[in-house]
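In this section we walk through a basic example: taking a raw amino acid sequence and producing a predicted 3D structure, encoded as discrete structure tokens. The instruction is simple. Fold the sequence below.
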Amino acid sequence: MNVLALITQGDAVTALVAGLLLVMSVASWVVIFWKAWVLKRAVGDVARSTAAFWQSPNLTEAQQRVTSFDREALVLPLIVATHIRESGTLASSGQRSQQLTRVLRDALHGVLHKLQFGQVLLATVGSIAPFVGLLGTVWGIYHALIGIAAAGLITIDKVSGPVGEALIMTAAGLAVAIPAVLAYNIFGRSINRIEADLEGFAYDLRELLNVSGEASREFSDGPPLGKLVPLSSERGSAPPEAREATSVGAP
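The resulting token sequence is shown next.
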């Protein structure tokens, strides 16, 4: 006798447990296929987008190249967030490094929230599905024993059949939970990798715009990226703050 026969012969509780397991299974597999497709694209897009950004001659071209590569919009929000405008509010007050840190942190949190979508569902299914199946098993065994007692004839063959059928609910719960747990762990590793890449890019972007003072400038006709970073230039051509920084400890 299969699970379908167990559901049809069981009571409302058995049908409810089986239906709940079915819903959790369908939902988890939909999330698994969707996140596998999204994360596979995201891993490659982040690498290509960051490489295209740093290889661009100016900020305008960098943003345009990232737009063409960043299909999941993971890198572009970090760049757009650096469009800081002087509006006379607390958000625009403070040092430039503080403003950049705040806007990049908020943009990074938004991107990570998008990447982590569905992880809670997988963790929930992986955690409660075995217990839901166990509940169905306990209730099925109780229901079977009540039926056997009502029949007035208790033999091993009369007990083993209904009890074995009730144990199928535990197996069904494990079948629902195991793929969800495996997918959660695999996707979590990919998300951590993408998060590390985005954090590194956000840090480098903050340092670039903080040193260059270009965070509040519109991305049009921007100067070459090589001119925005005075770290590799000669000391005489660097701005005063850069010259002061590089002169520390100099003989």
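Looking at the output, two observations stand out. The longest helix spans residues 156-212. The chain has a mean pLDDT of 77. In the next section we compare this with other chains.
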